[in-house]
Design goal:
Oligomer: single chain
Strand content: under 5%
Shape: rod-shaped
Mean pLDDT: 76
Structural class: mainly alpha
Number of strands: 0
Number of helices: 1
Helix content: over 70%
Radius of gyration: 18 Å
Length: about 40
């Protein structure tokens, strides 16, 4: 049972990382596009 919980946590960790990093990536892309439009 412990190994099952460990494997589940190991599988869930990348998903949690993706959920946390998605807003930052979206904001970064918006800022990048805005700066690109301003500079050009």
């Amino acid at each position: 049972m412990r190994s099952y919980v460990g494997s589940f946590g190991y599988r869930f960790r990348p998903v949690e990382f993706a959920i946390r990093s998605t807003p930052a990536l979206c904001i970064g892309m918006i800022v990048f596009i805005t700066l690109y439009d301003v500079l050009w």
